[in-house]
Write a structure and sequence with these properties.
Blueprint (H helix, E strand, L loop, with lengths): L4 E8 L2 H14 L6 E7 L3 E4 L16 E3 L6 E4 L3 E7 L2 H4 L3 H18 L5 E3 L2 E6 L2 E11 L2 E9 L33 H16 L5
Parallel strand pairs: 1-2, 3-4
Antiparallel strand pairs: 2-6, 3-5, 6-10, 7-8, 8-9, 9-10
């Protein structure tokens, strides 16, 4: 019997209540609970991973900085960026953390290829890149064999806030977004559809 999966599209939602809801779901789930993927956008916010160093936040200004338990350093979320939170029982899926990261990267590369964008992961820095520029960031936490947090794909957003940080802890790291590589319109609902399909395929869930 396939692992049950609920995919929820939440629109633009504040970061902190979403974080608390993700933590609550992870804390309360059991071996029979369905896996969940949440697709959403956030208002402007910087999030700092559990090993994050304060010096990588150069000038936060009016954008809040939230300390979280995911891996990695500081990143930026804002309107026009597609975020996917993956609350998955990886023990039930019989995969490890590295397998999950690889599947997420594979899904992103597949989605971008569908738009004619040649992208690839890097072994030294998690995420997906177009040339030397980062287009998608990954950060996870595993608790009791279940994942939470996830990935962020830059679609069509204000990129200036990335200049206020060292993205993912790398000074001068170039950031890019999908709209810079595609001439067609990019409705967020369409990108969501494609990301959901790519994640289902990469992780072995049946199509909706």
């Amino acid at each position: 019997m396939p692992t049950p999966l609920n995919v929820r599209r939440l629109g633009q939602v504040e970061y902190l209540p979403t974080l608390e809801a993700m933590r609550k779901l992870t804390a309360e789930r059991d071996s029979a609970s369905a896996d969940e993927i949440w697709l959403l956008e956030h208002p402007p916010v910087f999030t700092q991973g559990q090993a994050g160093k304060a010096e990588h936040v150069l000038a936060a200004g009016d954008i809040p900085v939230v300390q979280v338990e995911r891996g990695g350093q500081v990143t930026y979320h804002g309107p026009g960026q597609l975020v996917a939170y993956l609350m998955l029982d990886i023990r039930r899926l019989d995969i490890g953390v590295r397998d999950l990261v690889t599947a997420m990267e594979r899904a992103l590369v597949s989605l971008l290829a569908g738009y004619g964008v040649d992208a690839a992961p890097r072994s030294d820095a998690p995420g997906v890149y177009v040339g030397a520029a980062k287009i998608a960031s990954l950060g996870l936490r595993i608790r009791r064999g279940c994942s939470f947090h996830g990935l962020a794909l830059n679609v069509d957003m204000d990129m200036q806030p990335f200049q206020r940080i060292n993205p993912c802890g790398y000074a001068g790291l170039a950031m890019t977004q999908l709209c810079d590589h595609v001439s067609a319109e990019l409705p967020m609902t369409q990108v969501m559809d494609r990301l959901e399909l790519a994640l289902r395929q990469a992780l072995g869930y049946p199509n909706a």
